[in-house]
Specification:
The chain has 204 residues and is an alpha+beta fold. The protein has three helices and nine strands, in the order H-E-E-E-H-E-E-E-E-H-E-E.
């Protein structure tokens, strides 16, 4: 497994060591450290994995990387873009016995954003049934940017800061927070671009 990841990271290096493509957005306003952004629609490949949060990215990465590097019908290769996002899966109340989950009881949706010229109709069909391709509609988010290691403590600190700024501004949000990571794992921690996003309510 470690050998596979090493080869995978080497393949990703040309894409992730420089500025690479990310979804188109417009900054509508800024409040302290928070940007209010309007994103255009984009397409993602996603997989749902068990937690805990700090392990979810490592579990999802080889699956999604396999898809964009040719594990799809037509063996089409897609360029790596940014960010890689991670969101807690909403808890669903079930009438039947629950599915087997990790000891943490958490599951996470991890997404690779696909290149802008890829549409839902032109995206290659995954061979791995765990991979889903879907379109993200135009939407507004509040985003706070930070650097540092991908720890839960670092994430929670900036999520709390983001929520505090929005509350003071009287801005409401909905849904689960999203962690967005823009750099490869071998990027020094102090050079990483990390963000937390909250989806803004339609009334804002």
């Amino acid at each position: 497994m470690l050998k596979f990841l090493a080869v995978l990271l080497a393949a990703l290096a040309p894409f992730m060591s420089h500025a690479i493509e990310e979804p188109a957005y417009e900054v509508k306003s800024q409040i302290d450290e928070v940007e209010i952004r309007l994103y255009a629609p984009y397409v993602v490949a996603q997989v749902t994995v068990d937690g805990p949060a700090e392990d979810a990215g490592n579990k999802a990465f080889p699956i999604l990387a396999g898809y964009i590097f040719g594990k799809n019908k037509g063996e089409r290769k897609l360029e790596m873009t940014a960010p890689v996002t991670q969101t807690p899966e909403p808890v669903k109340m079930a009438m039947t016995a629950p599915v087997t989950q990790s000891a943490s009881g958490e599951r996470f949706v991890v997404q690779f954003v696909l290149p802008r010229d890829v549409t839902l109709e032109t995206a290659p069909e995954p061979l791995d049934p765990r991979v889903q391709v879907r379109q993200v509609l135009a939407h507004s988010v509040a985003a706070i940017r930070y650097s540092g290691r991908w720890t839960q403590a670092n994430y929670e600190e900036h999520l709390e800061k983001l929520q505090t700024i929005l509350r003071r501004a009287g801005i409401t949000w909905s849904g689960e927070p999203m962690l967005s990571r823009y750099n490869a794992p071998f990027t020094p921690w102090f050079m990483r671009r990390n963000e937390v996003w909250l989806s803004l309510s339609q009334t804002n």
